[in-house]
């Protein structure tokens, strides 16, 4: 059995978000999380079976790290990216549906997406999940990879921005903090960064006039997830997640983003090298938090050897994100909200 290294004092919080392997934490995971005290836990379909089971898993994490207020994340965008199983939860419509409605009826689309994400927030908050890695602000073009096109909020900066504003409002009303992604823009990718490293050849002027706009429009949000993409006109060597030029010159300066920057999954094949090297590179580039999703214990243990205590500017940004995630949810009648959403969508389905 893999032993957990004695890495840090028990009172600290580290700059990593970990996944876990199954429906409950294993003894080895509990030992690791107790030692490292990750800032958050991210859940996937392998971790989600029923309401009681999910709340028990969240309770396991709280007990392991010794805090009642914990950051629990999920990707619940709707459509293909819906982690909660349909046996107990609705599968929300794909973001592409609202994008299609927006073309001819923008007000209906904005109202509908607000209601949709208000319902998503209700589902999540009830389970103890308080961060949703959504909305995706990437704008696809002709030839973009399906990993973007079948999840996009639209094909124009204005439409993506407007729908994202309403999706975020719906989540925040339910006490769930959003994560805008994938900065500074994944829309031009022609390959899936889960499997290969995309290269974008567009000029900086083209990117600034199109791809960057939704991120600029939402630059005051508390959290942003990076893109594992090489932008030839900006840094032709390093993917954005591990590029100091992308993090500092583009996301921090050009986009004026002052919130917490988390990596996309550090284990994706767009990045190369040992997992601990990737983590070091991301933090050195200026990311605040490393995201590791697979739940593979051996990788998490190796990554744990290089994570750091949250401190300074990163700690302040983390506290801002926690303020949103720990907000109280307003009371709603989910049946009534679903009926209102269905009435709008009826005309477009």
Reconstruct the topology from this structure.
Layout: E1 14-18, H1 27-36, E2 38-43, H2 51-65, E3 71-74, E4 76-78, E5 81-82, H3 95-104, H4 106-127, E6 131-132, H5 146-149, H6 157-173, E7 177-178, E8 180-183, E9 199-200, H7 204-209, H8 213-217, E10 223-226, E11 230-231, H9 244-254, E12 260-262, H10 275-285, E13 290-292, H11 297-304, H12 312-325, H13 334-346
Parallel strand pairs: 1-2, 1-13, 2-3, 3-6, 6-7, 8-10, 9-11, 10-12
Antiparallel strand pairs: 4-5
Helix pairs in contact: 1-2, 1-11, 3-4, 4-6, 4-13, 10-11
InterPro entries: GH, Glyco_hydro_3_AS, Glyco_hydro_3_N, Glyco_hydro_3_N_sf, NagZ_Beta-hexosaminidase
GO biological process, one term: peptidoglycan turnover
Organism: Paremcibacter congregatus
> Any idea what the radius of gyration is?
19 Å
Which architecture per CATH?
Alpha-Beta Barrel
C-alpha termini separation: 52 Å
Strand order of the largest sheet: 7-6-3-2-1-13
Q: State the low-pLDDT regions, or none.
A: 1-10
Number of domains: 1
Q: Percent helix among the residues?
A: 40-55%
Q: Structural class from helices and strands?
A: alpha/beta
Number of E-state strands? 13
Number of helices: 13
Element string (H = helix, E = strand): EHEHEEEHHEHHEEEHHEEHEHEHHH
Q: CATH homologous superfamily?
A: Glycoside hydrolase, family 3, N-terminal domain
Tell me the name of the CATH class: Alpha Beta
């Amino acid at each position: 059995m893999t032993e957990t290294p004695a890495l840090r004092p028990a009172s600290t919080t580290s700059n990593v978000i970990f996944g876990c392997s199954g429906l409950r934490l294993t003894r080895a995971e509990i030992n690791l999380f107790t030692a490292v005290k990750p800032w958050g836990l991210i859940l996937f379909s392998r971790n989600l079976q029923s309401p009681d089971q999910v709340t028990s898993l969240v309770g396991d994490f709280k007990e392991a790290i010794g805090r009642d207020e914990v950051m629990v994340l999920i990707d619940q965008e709707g459509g293909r990216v819906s982690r909660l199983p349909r046996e107990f939860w609705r599968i929300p419509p794909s973001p592409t549906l609202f994008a299609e409605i927006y073309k001819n009826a923008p007000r209906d689309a904005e109202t509908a997406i607000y209601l949709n994400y208000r319902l998503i927030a209700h589902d999540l908050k009830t389970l103890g999940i308080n961060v949703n890695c959504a909305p995706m602000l990437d704008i696809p073009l002709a030839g973009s990879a399906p990993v973007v096109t079948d999840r996009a909020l639209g094909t124009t900066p204005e439409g993506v921005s407007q729908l994202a504003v309403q999706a975020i409002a719906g989540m925040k009303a339910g006490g769930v903090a959003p994560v805008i992604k994938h900065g500074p823009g994944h829309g031009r990718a022609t390959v899936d960064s889960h499997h290969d490293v995309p290269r974008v050849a567009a000029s900086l002027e083209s990117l600034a006039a199109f791809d960057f706009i939704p991120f600029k429009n939402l630059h005051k949000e508390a959290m942003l997830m990076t893109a594992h993409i090489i932008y030839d006109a900006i840094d032709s060597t390093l993917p954005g997640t591990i590029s100091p030029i992308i993090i500092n010159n583009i996301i921090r300066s050009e986009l004026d983003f002052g919130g917490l920057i988390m990596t996309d999954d550090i284990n994706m094949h767009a990045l190369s090298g040992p997992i601990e090297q990737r983590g070091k590179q991301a933090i050195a580039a200026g990311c605040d938090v490393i995201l590791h999703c697979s739940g593979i214990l051996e990788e998490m243990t190796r990554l744990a050897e290089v994570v750091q205590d949250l401190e300074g500017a990163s700690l302040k940004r983390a506290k801002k994100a926690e303020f949103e995630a720990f907000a109280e949810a307003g009371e709603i009648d989910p049946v009534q909200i679903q009926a209102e959403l269905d009435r709008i969508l009826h005309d477009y389905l």
